[in-house]
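@channel sequence for tomorrow's demo:
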Amino acid sequence: MIAAVDTYLAVRRLGGFALSNTEYLLRSFAAYAGAYGEAVIQTATVITWASLGPSLAQRHRRYETVRQWAEQLHLDDPRHEVPPARYFGYRKTRRPPRLYTETEIDQLLAVSAALRPVNALTPHTYVALLSLLAATGLRISEALALKTTDLTGDGLVIRKTKFHKTRLVPLHETARRGLEQYLGHPARPSSREPWVFVSDAGHPLRYWDVHAVFRRLVADAGLPMSGGRAPTLHGLRHTFAVRALMATPTDHAQVGQAMRALATYLGHVSIASTYWYLEATPDLLADIAAVSEGLVTGAPV
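structure tokens (generated this afternoon):
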């Protein structure tokens, strides 16, 4: 089955998909089925292999990944069984995001500025990185992929997005000035590397290194858990989105326009991802509830 995995991945990657986790799962299943001498997909084997996942969400992901592959294989070879959809009955739920207060963001920036060695680039790198995330709502992967040529007169050109689409993110003048100061900092090493955020040695920052530093910053700042959730890098994006919605005019006709604009700005493929932020915006939820009640009762809205 490994050859079939390679072919499937090659075709889908022509469409720009990375599929790193999909590749891992399909190769794992192919090896599992191969150990039992199976050359075609069998539903019972898919269920048994998927059941090895430690959580319901992971079992669902394993199962659906192979099921989608089986659908393609079945078109060319009907011997491949196509397992029924949603076998594990999993339904994705998202907890409300852990948001930051303005004071907490200030605390993160303060401990970032105190990173050692103080005369190196590192403190300035993390102040600039966290400030940009808070001011623009970028994904951390998008920020780390930024090149110096992506800073234009119209804003930041985001090329390496989650869904492989390019978009332009306008920058407030203070954000632009902060980035320019960071790029021109005397501690920044002379390098031909094109990346915006670099280490003291001039190499691009790696996500896992940034994540480790961020956890230390959270501890140094003494930021607590909220709603059972610890502070995360992605929480800065959530906070930006919720604040943007809170700044929306209360006229319900304008809320929909603001949602579409925010979805485009954040790079969401589905506006459903943007509507999720309403859960953390009580004022807008109350307005929506009032409008909905008016539609049901016939009262003016």
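heads up for whoever presents: The chain has a mean pLDDT of 87.
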